[in-house]
Amino acid sequence: MKTVDKICNTDVIIEAPPAKAYTLRALIISSLAEGKSIIQNPLFGQDQLNVIECLKRLGVKIEHDNNKIVVYGTDGKYSPVSEELNVGESGVGMNFLTSAACLSCKPVIITGAERITERPISEVVNGMRQLGCKIEYLEQEGFPPIKVYGGGIKGGDAQIKGQKTSQYFSSITTSSPYADNKVTLTCIDTMTERPYFDISLQMMAEFGVKAVNNNYKQIIIPNDEKYTAREIKIEGDYSSASFFFLAAAICKTKVTVKGLNPNTKQGDKGFLTLIEKMGCKVSEADDRICVEGSNMHAIEQDMSNLPDLVPPLAIAAAFAEGTSKLTNIGHLRHKECDRLAVMASQLKKMGVSAKCDENSLIIEGSKQIHGANIDPHNDHRIAMSFAIAGLVTGNQYIENEMCVAKSFPDFWEKFEVFSK
Questions:
Q1: How crowded is the C-beta side of 33, counted as CA atoms within 13 Å?
Q2: CATH code given to domain 20-217
Q3: Measured between alpha carbons, how far is 25 from 174 in angstroms, rounded to an integer?
Q4: Which of 49, 184, 185, 402 holds its CA 20 to 30 A away from the CA of 68?
Q5: Please, are residues 42 and 23 in contact by the beta-carbon 8 Å criterion?
Q6: Could you give the count of Cα atoms lying within 13 Å of 386 in the half-sphere of its Cβ?
């Protein structure tokens, strides 16, 4: 259990960690490319380590030290050295590898931690089956573990839903350049989390394949372009930086984060716009972004494309004046935990009136917030959000604090900057 005391340092400068989304996509795409790729400044979170191990089991040669990962691509043909891939708690790993493993020369089983077996995989499986792949559920229909028979991807047309997450589209799209025929992927509802799909398309283009995105409704992936190995540097992560910006906002202090790309595709840069709208001052200079906190007022916001910002924005709302409403976030019930229910229950422990329905989170700001014993339900973003809240209240206790390793393994070391 981690104890969080009130903030001491009111003018913080800190380096952003590497971007989780970019690192994971670079790993999958470079494993399919032809030649040796070098990934500079990668994130070594638990998700990345699990995906690296799974790729090794698929026969990919990977070397890494503290600052880089070297991936020897397979030119779209995996030769597994193990029949089981364990993604741990990585939803991205499960989704992306379900499609990628179809390019294996023999069957593999993909499984993971208990929570992964509760997260739906049916849209990816349905999509890949439409493209000529054989995939079998081993326990519960629609959920991992699954058996992917490999043998390649025939291609053609597929129609799937994107309401729960764009990861399904990212998964199928990144593997489709190696299909026997061109792939046309259609979204039959409304795709959420679109900025993450933008990142997937950007990374594909970086490695030499340009897919056509027709307004997130129809994706066309050519099969006459393949990935070419390259050297790439991972930019800073706005999702992780949001926790430090949150500290400035609710503590009414000044925080500067270095190492961020001002022209990023990351949708989570939007956190700056949201807290500015609530009353904070935001300034940018080169790769540095500075946030200065002030009195904040409530916000009503559609968060369908910014799911990872819901926990920190909910904390900001708790310290703001008025009642905030975060909407179109029903898909967050299928993340590491039911994020809506858990955020509401843990805010109540701190004396905040918070409630959720199937699709939204409603938070009434309070001036009587106190520290509490917080159970993040093994969710890294919830743990980090409530740690920041503790900088205001003191006497905050975070159970299972090392769940942050999923996306930000050195969070607690960097967090110490607030107490110096």
A1: 27
A2: 3.65.10.10
A3: 8
A4: 402
A5: yes
A6: 36
Model confidence, pTM: 0.92
Dist. CA 279–CA 349, nearest whole Å: 26
Active site residue 308: yes
Q: What are phi and psi of 41, to 5 degrees?
A: 55, 45
Distances (CA, A) of 346 to 224, 334, 376: 51, 18, 8
For residue 193, give the amino acid letter: E
Name residues whose C-beta falls within 8 Å of residue 163's C-beta, 6 or more positions apart in sequence.
189, 190, 191, 192, 331
Q: Residue 294, Cβ neighbours under 10 Å: how many?
A: 12
The one-letter code for the residue type at 172 is I
How far, in whole angstroms, is CA 362 from its chain's centroid? 23
CATH number assigned to the domain covering 2-17+236-419:
3.65.10.10
- Is the separation of the CB atoms in 256 and 13 below 8 Å? yes
Tokens coding 408: 């930000």
Measured distance CA(340)–CA(338) in Å, rounded: 6
What pLDDT, on a 0 to 100 scale, did the predictor assign at position 245? 98
pLDDT, tens digit, for every residue of 348-365? Answer: 999 999 999 888 999 999
Cα distance between residue 316 and residue 251, in whole Å: 10
Q: Which of 47, 198, 237, 308 is catalytic?
A: 308
What the block records as the tokens of 71 is 């991936």
Residue range(s) in the chain whose domain bears CATH number 3.65.10.10: 2-17+236-419, 20-217
For residues 209 and 74, give the distance between their C-alpha atoms in angstroms, rounded to a whole number.
16
What pLDDT sits at residue 335? 72
251 vs 402: CA distance, rounded Å = 24
What are the structure tokens assigned to 367, written together? 């001036």
Q: Which amino acid is at 21?
A: A
Report the alpha-carbon distance of residue 143 to residue 404 in Å, rounded: 25
The letter for the amino acid at 121 is: I
165-201 confidence digits (pLDDT tens): 999 999 999 999 999 999 999 999 999 999 999 999 9
pLDDT confidence tier of residue 49, bands split at 50, 70 and 90: very high
- Per DSSP bridges, beta strands 254-258 and 11-15 are parallel
Query: What angle, rounded to 10 degrees, do the helices at 270-278 and 310-318 form?
Result: 10
Owner of token pair 């918070």: 354
